[in-house]
Amino acid sequence: MLNVNYSFANTCRVFVLLLLCLGFTRAADAQTGRTVADFDKGWKFHLGDVKGADKASAPDKNWRNLNLPHDWSIEGTFSKDNPASPEGGALPGGIGWYRKTFTVPLASKGKQVYIDFDGVYQHSDVWVNGHHLGFRPNGYISFRYELTKYLNFGGVNVIAVKVNNSEQPNSRWYSGSGIYRNVWLVTTNQIAIDHWGTYVTTPAVSANSATIALQVKVKHNLANFKPYTIQVRVLDAANKVVAIGGSIPSYPQLADSVATLNNSFKVKNPHLWSIESPYLYKVVTTILVDKVIVDTYTTPLGIRSFEFDADKGFILNGKPLKILGVCDHHDLGSLGSAINTRALERQLQILKGMGVNGIRTSHNPPAPELLDLCDKMGFIVMDEAFDMWKMKKTKYDYHLFWDEWHKRDLQDQILRDRNHPSVFIWSIGNEIGEQYSRTDTTGRVIARELAGIVRSLDNRPITAANNDPEPGSNIIASGALDLIGYNYHHQDYDSFHKRYPGKKFISTESTSALETRGSYDMPSDSIRRWPIAWDKPFTTGNPDNSVSAYDNVSAPWGSTHEETWKVVKKNPMLSGMFIWTGFDYLGEPTPYSWPSRSSYFGVIDLAGFPKDVYYMYQSEWTNKTVLHIFPHWNWEAGKTVDVWAYYNNADEVELYLNGKSVGIKKKTGDDLHVMWRLKYEPGTLKAVSRKNGKVVLTKVINTAGAPAKIELTADRSNIKADGKDLSFITVRILDKAGNVVPNADNLVKFKIAGPASIASVDNGDPVSHDPFKADYRKAFHGLALAIVQGKETAGSVTFTATSEGLAPATVVIKTK
Ligand code: GAL
C-alpha cells in the first residue's frame, strides 16, 4: 500500500488552479474515461425455474419483456396460504429468471466491463454467456461482477440471473422478489478507480476552513506498469472549482493490483451541510496517463462536523440538534419493493413536512438512491446492516448464510455508503437474538468482530438496536458500541446515566403505536396496549381490523406517540429517536393477522396519506403553524364523540358546534393535544386557534352528505418522459358541497389515455386483498390513490376516474 499525503503550497495555489482548470475542463469534456450506463431496459423475465436458462443459447423468446427494477411478488395475489405468511405480506415468492441480450461495441475491446447490481432479493446467481459469475444470498446488498474476459466485443452477449426467493418465510416483513433495484453497466480503462474506490472524509471543519482527506484506490490491469497521475478538484454546488487537491503521482504496481493513494487539502469558507441547508460539493478525481484522462470519478461531499455527547446529545456543526427520525422498511407501498426515485422522494417530502430529520434504514442496507436523496434533502441516516446474526428470526433467513457472508456483506455496505454525508450512524443489527443470554457470550464476540469491521473502514459512531437495555446484554457488554441504542423502554431513558455513567445514548426505535387512517372506533382517553388490555380482538381480528386513529393503542413493548416524544423532548442527553414507523409497510400486521396483510404502525398510511398523529409531530417538530382537529363529523345522533386538536403557535383553541362555543382549551404542562367530549349533532364543527386574543388559524369540519362526485389531485402535473417518473393522483369522494365523505368506499374505475400507464393503485386499507396492479380501487375512508408512470414519449396524459352514481373527474398530466 502506498500512501502519499500532498498539500498545496499557498504560493503556487492560484496559478496551478487556473492551469488545471483549463486543462481539465477541455479534457473532461472530450472524454471522462468511464461510462456508467443504465442497464435496466430490455430484460426478459420468466416466473418459475427453467432448466438450462443460464446457457447463452437458452430460448427466451416467449418470456415476458420488462424493464427493471422489477418486483414480481407485488404482481401476485394475496393469500394467507402464501408461504411468506401475512407477516411477509401474504404475497407469493418463488423462483424467477431474468435474461438480457446486449451488444458490446468492438471499440470497447481492451476496456474493463462490469455489471453492478444495486440489490436482488434474493439468492441470486448471475451468468454471462454461460459463465457463472457468482452467487449472493443477501437480498439487500449491492454487488459487482467483472464481465471483461467473457464478453464478445463487437457481438451479442447474454446475462442470465436466477433469483430464488422460494424458501419462505425468510423475512419478518415484505421483501419483494426479483431484481428490484437498478443495474448498471460500467466500462473503464485498464487503469481506473476501483469499485467504491474513493473515500472522502472531513477530519477538521470550521467556519473558515475544512480539511478534506481523500483516499483513492486505483486498479491497474496492464501487464507492464504505466505511471499515472491523480488529480483532484472540489466543485461547489454551482460546479465551480473551489479547491484543487494537488497531483498524486503513482508508484509501480503489479498487473491486476490495487494501489491506495491518500491526499488531503482544504476548502476555504466551506458552506456546511445541515438539515436546513444540505449543501453538497463534489470531489472529482481524475487519473491521467501521459496527460490524457483515463478515468474520472465523482464522489459526493458534504462538509459538516458532528458529535454525540453523553449529556448534550447530538451536535451538528457545533449546535445541539435532536434527531427526529423514523424507521422505514424498503417497500414503496403498492409499488412493492421495485425502487423508484420519485416514489422515495415523495416519501421523504411527506416526512419533511412532518418535521422528520432522520431515517433509519430498518433493518438492512437501503437502495443507494435513498442515500442520494437524504444527502440532497437533509436527513440524518442510521444505516443498518442486519436483522439477525447467527440466531434465526425466521426459518430460512440470513442466519443460514451468516458464517460465510457477514464479513463481506458488512464490508460492502460500508464501502458503498461511507461517502454519503447523510450517513451519521452505523447500526450493526436490530434486536439481535444473541443479546439476551447471560451464559452464552457469542453475542459479545460477534459484536466486537462487526464493530471491528466497520472501524477498519470508517470512523462514524456504531450502535445496535437493543431491546435488552441491561448492562448484562451481550451486545452492550461487548463494549463495541459508541452509542448505546435502545429499542423502546422509554420509561428507562431518564435513568440511562445511572445505568451507563458517561455513555452516549440513542433511541434506535420507539413507539410502535397503531392507527388506521380515518377510523375512530374506540374511546380516545384510555391508553391500550395489546394483548394485555385488548386480548381477544387482537388475536382473532376486529371485524374490519381497524384501530382507532386516536393516539391511544400501542404495542406492550412500545408507547403511544405522545408518551415517547414527551420524554425525548425534555431531556437533552437523549440525542434522538426513530419512530416505528414513518409509513405503514407491507407485512407485519401485528397484532393482527390475516386478513390483514400490512402494518398499522405508520404515522402515514401505505398509500402515503397522513394519519391524524402526523399533525401532532408537525405541531411539535416544525415551525409551520398547525391546527388539526379530528375526527370527522358524521356520527349517529346523540353519540358521545371526543374531538381532539393538535395545534401550535397559539395560546388556546376554541371549538364551536353549529355556531355555539363548546369551550376554550389550552395545553398545559407537557400536553400535546386538547380534547372536548361532545354529544354529536350534525352540522359544523369549527375550531379557532388564537394567540394574544388574535385568530391564528380556523378549521372547519362539516357533516358530509351522500357521495356525489370525485375529485382528483395530481401531486405533479408535469413529469419526465423517461419511463420512470411518477405522478401520484389522490382520489377524493366528495358530497355535493365538496366535503370529503369520511366513510365512503365507492369503487372507482380509472382510464388513462396518452403516453403513460397506471403503475399501481391503493387506498391505505390494511385488509384489502384487491390487486395493486389494477385500473380500479375502492375508496377507503373517502380516499384512494392512483400512481401514473410516464412512458418515454412526451405528450399529454388524460386520467379519468368514474364511479357509479358519482360525477366523474379528469386530470391532465404532461410528460416531457
Ligand atoms: C420491533 C422490531 C421491528 C418491528 C417492531 C414492531 O421490536 O425491531 O422490526 O417488528 O418491533 O413493533
Automatic annotation (TrEMBL):
InterPro entries given in the database record: Beta-gal/glucu_dom_sf (IPR036156), DUF4982 (IPR032311), Galactose-bd-like_sf (IPR008979), GalB-like (IPR048229), GH (IPR017853), GH2_Domain-Containing (IPR051913), Glyco_hydro2_dom5 (IPR040605), Glyco_hydro_2 (IPR006101)
Return the SUPFAM superfamilies for the record: (Trans)glycosidases, beta-Galactosidase/glucuronidase domain, Galactose-binding domain-like, Invasin/intimin cell-adhesion fragments
Is Signal one of the keywords? yes
Which keywords does the record carry? Glycosidase, Hydrolase, Signal
Domain Glycoside hydrolase family 2 catalytic: residue ranges: 311-477
Q: Which GO terms describe its molecular function?
A: hydrolase activity, hydrolyzing O-glycosyl compounds
Q: Which domain of life is it from?
A: Bacteria
- Note whether Kinase occurs among the keywords: no
Q: Glycoside hydrolase family 2 immunoglobulin-like beta-sandwich domain location, by residue? A: 199-304
Question: Where does the record locate the signal sequence feature?
Answer: 1-30
Q: Which residue numbers delimit the DUF4982 domain?
A: 638-696
Record Pfam families: DUF4982, Glyco_hydro2_C5, Glyco_hydro_2, Glyco_hydro_2_C, Glyco_hydro_2_N
Q: Which family is this protein grouped under?
A: Belongs to the glycosyl hydrolase 2 family.
For this entry, the protein name equals: Glycoside hydrolase family 2 protein
Q: Which organism is it from?
A: Mucilaginibacter gilvus
Question: What broad taxonomic lineage does this protein's source fall under?
Answer: Bacteria, Pseudomonadati, Bacteroidota, Sphingobacteriia, Sphingobacteriales
